[in-house]
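Take a look at the protein record below and flag anything odd:
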Amino acid sequence: MPRTPHRPIACLMRTVAAFAIATGLTACGAKATAPQEPAALANVSESGRTEEAYQEALEQRFEAGVTLVGQETSQTTGTPAQFSELEPQAAAPAKPARKPWTVMVYIVGTNLESESPNGEASIDIDEMAAAGVDFSQANVLYMTGGAKSWKKDIPNDKNVVWDLATGQPVAVSEANSMGDPATLASFVNFADAYYPAEHTALVMWDHGGGPVLGFGEDELAADDGLSLPEMATAMEQTRYHGGTKIDVVGFDACLMGSVEIADVWAPYAKWMVASEESEASGGWDWRYLSVLNGAPEPAAFCEAIVSNFKTFYELQNQQGGLGRIDYTLAALDLSVMPEMRNAIDELAVALKYDVDAGDYSKINAAREGACEFGFLIVQGRVIRHDLFDLADFATRLGSSQPKEAGRVSEVLSRLIRYNTTNIEGANGVSIYFPSNNPSMWTLAQRGMGTPLGDAYRELESSYADRWNQQSDTEWTLINLNPAKAPGEAALSPDGTEYLVPLDEEQLADLSHASYSVLAYDDTSYRRMLCDVRVEPDDDGVLHVPVDPKVVVATSDGLDTPMPLLAQQVTADRYVCPTVRLISDVSDADSYDDVSLVFVAGEDDGLLLTAAPFASQGVTSSRLSANLSDYQAIASLYGHNVKPTRDDDGLLPHTLWDEADDDYRYAWTDIDESLAFGLQPASELGLKVSCQVILTDQNGAQHGTELFELGGQSS
């Protein structure tokens, strides 16, 4: 019998939405009269945080670190000015007995616990208890902290270590920051002293931000987390350094399966288990702990985590519905990391030779094509973590650097011992490389320390230096609008594509090319589909469809498909970043702002993979909405924009002036007839235009004139 989800997930296994059309989207007609609009849409205002505000929040977090904790100038609550040691309680064992295994779970509750309806941490604690662990064979301890409130009977003004066998607290301290290395070290040291074992595992539970942003966000300590250097600092305060290693370190958190994190932990642990992509709401299936009853070797223990993870999500996906849960999880043999460092450095030396010579095309092509992870949605904006699958990256470099890239691939085959995923191109471990988010590079230099070898860091620095140089590209782009400039029209012989030729300078200095689809709305435009990447062919020509496909919703209640504001983040993934879910249509405050994340399916269908809440934090969120908990859904559109020019011509639409301050939206009650997909823009009855944008190596953007769909006049 299929298991039910142990956390609310957003794959719409039972309930999906049907859209009715509100005023302002006249091209989409509902079959029935739309009911009175929900009160939550009566006064729609811009609630989203800007990208600048997001970056400012990151800066504040990095400035804060552990230094803010307990100081009068901080906004922390319940955090002591001085570090408080864990004090053993009466339930701690008086005569510790050595067992085959001790598993330590470091639970930073954060908003995963305090804002989730059922408490994500509380659910997983119950899962641990339901695993049926034979406590004569193993100890399971978990430490709680970092949440404003708990669904279980757990205090929020203290750090507490609990023994799963008895459910009793065995050690307590004041509420130290869970982002303080000393807090993590105190937990490990207490477990070592009172719960000795032949094998030990440490699992970190919370949000994760990958190698740049690190692990954890303590809500009570200015969202303090553990950076990569702080993780090493914590372990240096335990016995697991200088050759003595913990058996397994794991991360039940997003984006922590990177080679940089593996490199930091290699001196302190033998194995690492983590996900290179953001985790679904369910996180790990903690019933894997039953494997402890057989006193497994560390390799078998890691295999059980990965295997149970796959089984859990495959069962969820087999239940059907419109959605699909994406998952990745891998177990790494950290004894291979010294070889991995050397292999990456050898590849970096070869690549840096090209970069120093001004040849970026090879590394650009590999980077742009490689499987990418970590798209953080911050209220309408997609923020990239610039994390790429290392194996996929190396494979794409094979034609230009066959020896060095082949060496990386060979070592990876021994580093990645167990891997499970349903994402094409996800092979088990990611790597950070400067790409689409220059601000992330600034934070990388502060938060990562110096993982991996010097040669790779020098490659990153040389490549990222281009962002600090003023762009000197003055590109003239072809006018593709046959209605306005028929002599410059460039159509394919069959009339289905616009052809955009690039010259040698553009090809040499091109970071990436994309096109965006905009709908004409009275005197301005609203964006429909943004950032659709296109690659130049062997002759340096971009192929842009005359009738591009956009993301739409269809249902029994619609005569015409409804377009959704969307951004393409990879070749097969789309994000609709401005969606409002309404719990009570009569309550103006009864709503949640979320995003919809889709993966391309068959026949231009789109499968919903997640509905993350609009993030107020600084890492990737595991919290996802379940649409069955809501009465209505609204698709919100941001401010309209109007074409804006400078002396060189039409600016890229990302730089256009705003046309007004009003949001437009469509909404409907939630029922069972919705389908998402891609559909030619010509079938929507809207006046649609496209703009091609070239982004150079310095991040400067260059846009074409608008060209109308099928040559229609404006």
In short: Residues 1-33, 66-79, 482-489 have pLDDT under 50 and may be disordered. Residues 477-612+622-711 form one domain. The two ends are 58 Å apart (CA to CA).
